[in-house]
Structure formats: structure tokens, C-alpha cells
């Protein structure tokens, strides 16, 4: 007899379905009060939730990276290899968690992100390090879980934050249900033993060797309550961020639509008419730009009444906006363009391709204007950054041109992000602060124009280029720069700062120059002081208009005219001839306007007067129409021999700078003319006893009429001195 199977345990009966019951509501009528369906949680299709929890070594690795970043990434003295190592670890750990799936797609982006983080270890310029670090932060999740459509990338940019709760649940599951390779208590025990060994043996090594103790002291930041608080907060934030990126790498959320909506294509007529008209408009404008390019400054002066610098400044931003808008128009037109028939495809290719090519010409025109602006006013960080963005726009138009020809753009979103990161990395590679300094030093050799204050505000990356300056200017800049100060902690060190710090120690003037010899030279050039394309502030401070004129000095020396050396004297000048000379610009500017910051004067006195510092000085400066500038100076020296020596030295400098120099009739002095296309200048100067008079017109006319205006203003300054002495 076959064995009988054991009796099955009685199964619990499912509760009978609850009958639907209804009630009556006085306002809404009949309503259901029982029998509501039970809510069922459906897993999100966007996130591939891992079945197992996070291995504990991954959570531990995220914690180690966060602790290191909170301790080493930021220092009050600056950032360096600590930030670079933190960023690299925050990229590598999540990348390894994701495994080999789609590794060929993720590796190129990961290399770009790693390069952006590495900039902190090489460059000292805070602005470029900040740009690279923020770009790396935004791109890292897109690299870990790549998307191929614009809509997916836009949604994923901030949609990843929605996985933060899931990331902590993932880590919690791994802690509560450890695998055979993970045990919380065992891991904590290993960490405790490791820390204990390092503390004991490290303490003994510190006590045994002073050099080792100094290295450890540099690595350990100073701890106070405020520092401990914000480093703890930073550690918590970094832990959440690294854990989230690890979760993104393994869950790989999908924000790309599975079946993207295909737009209803427009007709050939609807696309051809507006694009054809826009192409004609672009063609007409580019033809005019070609005439400007080949006609040069003379053509601009004849047709627009502007200098090339004014012309560049007046149109740069408008052309940049045109390029960005054209990019949007091309994107929409390509999206709506018909493709069914062969003729439709060729119409779209020709019209969109032509618009791309002419948009490239517009970008080239904007870049040409900016380059002329460099020549006229020098190079600054903002101008270099804007020029870099224009280069990126040109690259985007090339990419779009390829897409318009193929009428496919599946690779374009990634190419846009990758090209942007590559351009930013390229900017960091050329050493932007060093490039700016080198350009301005070369310009100083050609034109004699230089702004030591802006140069001193650059980072240590510019040290090599600034070391090529003449002795006086180099010592002034290096003394004012802050990267020649005390040493940095080891984790805040970077190559740019270390190299520049060494050069600063080599070139620093022992007496601590304060740029006094540069404050009043004719070659001073303040980058951006009259330039709306730049936020660079005027390094001079406006004098206090409430004070009374300077009283005559009581010490020995030429003190009789001390009341003359005050900004009040500038108000006594008759500027009618100067206003007629400058005339009206195309923008409606007329005559001259006082430059309040440079309407000043003072008496140093006999105790401070030397070969480089005058006994007293007066300065009156005015803005002319457009970019022109009028400047008048009177300097009083200790004796007539000193005044003549200064005049002779100024003349020699002009001759070495390839000015056309001529003697004055009936006076001991000279005129110097530079007919540079970018920055013409006329200087009229003479000496009378212990006084040196000088009148300069910069970026303005240099003809005989301008010389007569300078002579008349200089004669007024001499007459006023005789009256007020």
C-alpha cells in the first residue's frame, strides 16, 4: 500500500470581498464610504532598484571619501591637491560600483570629469578652479548614467536628487542584511584597529623627528569650534552626495522617453520662407562686416564716426545674442523640418546649413571685435572668459552643421556637454592668468600701457609672465601680490602657487615698493576703468571734496605754490578748446567730462622728495568722446636740475617706444606722437625752473589742432601757478 501524503495544513481563507456601501452627502450626493481599493505600491520604472542592499565596503568607502573631503578639500589659505583628490575619489568610487555595464560610454566622460577635478592641483586661479569644480559636480551624475536626448539630460540634471532617499534605503538594507563578505561589527573592528595603529606609531614618529612632526602639522588643519562645525556639515553633505552617486551608478535611472513624441512636421513652405528670409538678412550683414574687416579703422571712422574700439564695444554683445538666438532657431527648425520626401530633406539641409555657416561668420565677427578690444584696452579675466564662450559657440555651430546635413542628432546632446567640458579644460590648460599677464606684458612693451594694480590681483599662475616686466614694474607688482606671503598647508598646495611663491621670494623688493613710481607715470593703463565689458573696478579712490585746499608748507623748499597743488585748480581751467577738439561722437557724447578719481593734487614736502617722488604734484583728467582721454600734470621737483633730468628721461622713454619726438620752439620741452592704430597718443611737455608741465591726449586726435590745444592748456597751467604762488 502506497504511503499516503501527509495532510495539508488548512489554508487561511481570504476575507470575503467587502460589499460596496454608499452614503448620501448633502452637497455632492451619493458617495462611496466602504470598499475602497487597497493602494498598491508600484516600483518606479525610472530607477532600477537593486534587489540586494549596498555592500558594506561601498558604504564604508563613501564614508572615507566624505571624511577626507571634509578635512582636506577646503582651507582658508586656498585650495589645492586636497580638493583634487576629493573630486577624483568622488568620481572613481561610484564608477567602480556601476560595474562594466556601458563602461565604454561612461569612460570618456569620466576622464573629462577627472581632468576638471585635477585643475585644482595645478592652477592657483580661484575663478578657473571654481568653474571646473562646479562643472565636474554637474556632469558626474550624467556620466555615471548617460542619457542620449535633450529632454532626458534636462530632467536628469536635478532629477537625480529624487534618488537620495532610495540611496539611504539601499545602504540601510545592506547594513541590516549583510552578505557573507560584509559584516558591520567586523568592519568597525578593522577600522578601529587601523586608526589605533596609525595614532600610536605616528605619535612616536612625531616625537622622534622634528621634520616628520612639521609635515604632520601641515597636514592636520587647525581645529576650533567653528571649523569643527562646518567641516562636520561638509562631511555629512559629501557622504550623502557620494552615496547618491554610487546609487545612481548601479540603479542607472532612465529619464529618456521610451517612445519620444514625434512632432508633426511643418510643410516645406512653412520652413523655407522664414529660413530663407533669415538667410538673406544674415548674408547682408556679413557682407557689411567683410567691408569693415578689409576696410579697417579708416572705413569705420568714415562711415560710423567711431574708433575701432568704440565700434567693437557697441556691437559685441548684440552679435553674441544673435548667435545664441540663431542656435535656438536652428534647433526648432530642424525639429519641425519635413523629411518624408527627398526634396524636403535637401531644402532643410541647404537652408539650415547656410544659416549655420553664416552664424559661424557672426561668431567670427564677435571674436574679431573682442580681439580689437584686447588691443585697445588690454586683456582681463572677463574678456578672456567671454572669448572662450564664443569659441564654444563656434564649436556648437559646427556640430549642429553636421547634424543638419545628416538630419540626425542622437549623439548631439552628449557632444554638446563633452565639448563644453573640453573647452573649459582647454582654458585651464593654457593657464588663463598667465596668458592674461603675458598678453599685457607684451602690450606694455609695444605701447607703454600697463595696469600694475590689475596685474597684482592675478593669481600666482601669472608669476612667470610678470617676471618678464622691467625691474621697477616687476618689483611693484610682486610686492603687491598676496601669493608671496606665508606658506600654505600641504593639502592646500598647488603647482601654480608653489612656483609663483618661489618667484615672488626671488623678485620681491626688500624696501616694499608701493607703486608710487607707477601711480603718476604717463603709461598707467587701468584695464576696464572706462570699459562696460568688464567689472574691473578703478584702483584709485575718489578724493575727499570736503577738505580745504592744501596750506602752504612751512619747511624749506619750493613751498610758495602749495595752494596751487589741489584739485580746486582744475576747476579754473578753460576747456572750451578741448571740447571743440573732441566734438560729438556717434553716441551723442560731447566735449569732456571730469574724471573725478584723477582730479587731485598734493604736497609731499622736502623730507619725501627724491629722484622718483616729486616735491608736489597736480593732476587734472577728463573723459573725451568715445574712448578718448585728456590728462594734465604738473610736478614740482626739489630743484631745476631734477626737473630737467625727469623731462629728459621721459623723452628718452618716448623715443625708445618709437614715438615721433620733436623739440618745442621757444621752450625747453618736446612733443611726442604715437599714431598707433589701437591707441594713438599725443604728449606735450616742457620744463620751467623746478616745474615739469605735461598734457596728454590718449585715443584721440594727434594732429596740429590737438597740439595747439595741448599748448594752450599747458600755458593755462603755467599762468595759474604764477597767480596762485
Topology at a glance:
Elements: E1 21-25, E2 29-34, H1 56-72, H2 81-97, H3 103-122, H4 126-144, H5 150-159, H6 164-176, H7 184-208, H8 210-219, H9 225-251, H10 268-304, H11 308-336, H12 342-377, H13 381-406, H14 412-429, H15 432-447, H16 452-456, H17 463-466, H18 471-480, H19 495-507, H20 516-519, H21 576-582, E3 593-594, E4 600-603, E5 616-623, E6 629-636, H22 640-656, E7 660-663, E8 668-674, E9 681-688, E10 691-698, H23 704-724
Antiparallel strand pairs: 1-2, 3-5, 4-5, 5-6, 6-10, 7-8, 8-9, 9-10
Helix pairs in contact: 1-2, 1-9, 2-3, 2-4, 2-9, 3-4, 3-14, 4-14, 6-9, 7-8, 10-11, 10-12, 11-12, 11-13, 12-13, 13-14
Q: Any idea how many domains?
A: 4
- Indicate the radius of gyration in whole angstroms: 36 Å
Structural class: alpha+beta
Largest sheet: 8 strands, antiparallel
Low-confidence stretches: 34-43, 299-306, 509-514, 516-524, 528-560
Total strands: 10
Mean pLDDT score: 76
Distance between the termini: 141 Å
Q: What sort of overall outline do the alpha carbons produce when their principal axes are compared?
A: flat
Number of helices: 23
Proportion of strand residues? 5-15%
Give the helix level as a range of percent: 55-70%
Amino acid at each position: 500500500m502506497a504511503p499516503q501524503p501527509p495532510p495539508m495544513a488548512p489554508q487561511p481563507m481570504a476575507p470575503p470581498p467587502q460589499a460596496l456601501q454608499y452614503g448620501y452627502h448633502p452637497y455632492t450626493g451619493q458617495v462611496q464610504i466602504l470598499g475602497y481599493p487597497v493602494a498598491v505600491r508600484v516600483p518606479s520604472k525610472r530607477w532600477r532598484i537593486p534587489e540586494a542592499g549596498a555592500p558594506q565596503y561601498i558604504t564604508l568607502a563613501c564614508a572615507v571619501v566624505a571624511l577626507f573631503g571634509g578635512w582636506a578639500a577646503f582651507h582658508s589659505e586656498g585650495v589645492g591637491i586636497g580638493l583634487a583628490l576629493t573630486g577624483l575619489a568622488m568620481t572613481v568610487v561610484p564608477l567602480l560600483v556601476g560595474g562594466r555595464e556601458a563602461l565604454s560610454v561612461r569612460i570618456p566622460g569620466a576622464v573629462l570629469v577627472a581632468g576638471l577635478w585635477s585643475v585644482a592641483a595645478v592652477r592657483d586661479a580661484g575663478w578657473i578652479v571654481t568653474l571646473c569644480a562646479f562643472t565636474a559636480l554637474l556632469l558626474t551624475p550624467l556620466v555615471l548614467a548617460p542619457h542620449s536626448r535633450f529632454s532626458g539630460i534636462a530632467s536628469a540634471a536635478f532629477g537625480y536628487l529624487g534618488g537620495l532617499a532610495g540611496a539611504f534605503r539601499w545602504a540601510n538594507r545592506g547594513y541590516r542584511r549583510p552578505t557573507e563578505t560584509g559584516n558591520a561589527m567586523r568592519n568597525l573592528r578593522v577600522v578601529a584597529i587601523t586608526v589605533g595603529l596609525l595614532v600610536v606609531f605616528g605619535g612616536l614618529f612625531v616625537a622622534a623627528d622634528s621634520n616628520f612632526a612639521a609635515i604632520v602639522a601641515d597636514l592636520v588643519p587647525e581645529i576650533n569650534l567653528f571649523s569643527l562645525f562646518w567641516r562636520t556639515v561638509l562631511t555629512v553633505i559629501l557622504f550623502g552626495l557620494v552615496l547618491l552617486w554610487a546609487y545612481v551608478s548601479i540603479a542607472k535611472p532612465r529619464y529618456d522617453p521610451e517612445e519620444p513624441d514625434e512632432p508633426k512636421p511643418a510643410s516645406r513652405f512653412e520652413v523655407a520662407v522664414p529660413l530663407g528670409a533669415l538667410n538673406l538678412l544674415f548674408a547682408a550683414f556679413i557682407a557689411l562686416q567683410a567691408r569693415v574687416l578689409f576696410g579697417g579703422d579708416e572705413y569705420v571712422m568714415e562711415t560710423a564716426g567711431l574708433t575701432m574700439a568704440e565700434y567693437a564695444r557697441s556691437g559685441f554683445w548684440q552679435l553674441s545674442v544673435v548667435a545664441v538666438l540663431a542656435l535656438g532657431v536652428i534647433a526648432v527648425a530642424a525639429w519641425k523640418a519635413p523629411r518624408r520626401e527627398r526634396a524636403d530633406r535637401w531644402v532643410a539641409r541647404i537652408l539650415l546649413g547656410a544659416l549655420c555657416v553664416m552664424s559661424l561668420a557672426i561668431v567670427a565677427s564677435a571674436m574679431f571685435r573682442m580681439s580689437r578690444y584686447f588691443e585697445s584696452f588690454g586683456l582681463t579675466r572677463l574678456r578672456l572668459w567671454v572669448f572662450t564662450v564664443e569659441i564654444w559657440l563656434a564649436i556648437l555651430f559646427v556640430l549642429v552643421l553636421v547634424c543638419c546635413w545628416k538630419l540626425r542628432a542622437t549623439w548631439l546632446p552628449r557632444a554638446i556637454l563633452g565639448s563644453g567640458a573640453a573647452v573649459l579644460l582647454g582654458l585651464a590648460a593654457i593657464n588663463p592668468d598667465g596668458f592674461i599677464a603675458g598678453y599685457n606684458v607684451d602690450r606694455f612693451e609695444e605701447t607703454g600701457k600697463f595696469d600694475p594694480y590689475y596685474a597684482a590681483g592675478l593669481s600666482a599662475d601669472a608669476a612667470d609672465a610678470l617676471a618678464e616686466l622691467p625691474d621697477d614694474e616687476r618689483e611693484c607688482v610682486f610686492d603687491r601680490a598676496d601669493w608671496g606671503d606665508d606658506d600654505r598647508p600641504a593639502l592646500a598646495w598647488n603647482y601654480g602657487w608653489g612656483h609663483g611663491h618661489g618667484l615672488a621670494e626671488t623678485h620681491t623688493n626688500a624696501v616694499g615698493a608701493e607703486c608710487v613710481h607707477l601711480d603718476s607715470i604717463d603709461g598707467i593703463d587701468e584695464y576696464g576703468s572706462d570699459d562696460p565689458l568688464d567689472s574691473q573696478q578703478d584702483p584709485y579712490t575718489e578724493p575727499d571734496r570736503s577738505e580745504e585746499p592744501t596750506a602752504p608748507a612751512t619747511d624749506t623748499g619750493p613751498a610758495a605754490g602749495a595752494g596751487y597743488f589741489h584739485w580746486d585748480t582744475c576747476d579754473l581751467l578753460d576747456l572750451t578748446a578741448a571740447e571743440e577738439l573732441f566734438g560729438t561722437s556717434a553716441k551723442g557724447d560731447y566735449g569732456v567730462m571730469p574724471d573725478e578719481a584723477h582730479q587731485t593734487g598734493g604736497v609731499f614736502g622736502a623730507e619725501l622728495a627724491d629722484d622718483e617722488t616729486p616735491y608736489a604734484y597736480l593732476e587734472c583728467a577728463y573723459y573725451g568722446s568715445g574712448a578718448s582721454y585728456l590728462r594734465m600734470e604738473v610736478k614740482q621737483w626739489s630743484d631745476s636740475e631734477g626737473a630737467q633730468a625727469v623731462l629728459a628721461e621721459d623723452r628718452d622713454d618716448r623715443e625708445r617706444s618709437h614715438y615721433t619726438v620733436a623739440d618745442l620752439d621757444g621752450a625747453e620741452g618736446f612733443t611726442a606722437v604715437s599714431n598707433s592704430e589701437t591707441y594713438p597718443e599725443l604728449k606735450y611737455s616742457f620744463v620751467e625752473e623746478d616745474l615739469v608741465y605735461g598734457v596728454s591726449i590718449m585715443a584721440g586726435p594727434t594732429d596740429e589742432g590737438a597740439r595747439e590745444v595741448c599748448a594752450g592748456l599747458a600755458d593755462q597751467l603755467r599762468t595759474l601757478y604764477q597767480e596762485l604762488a
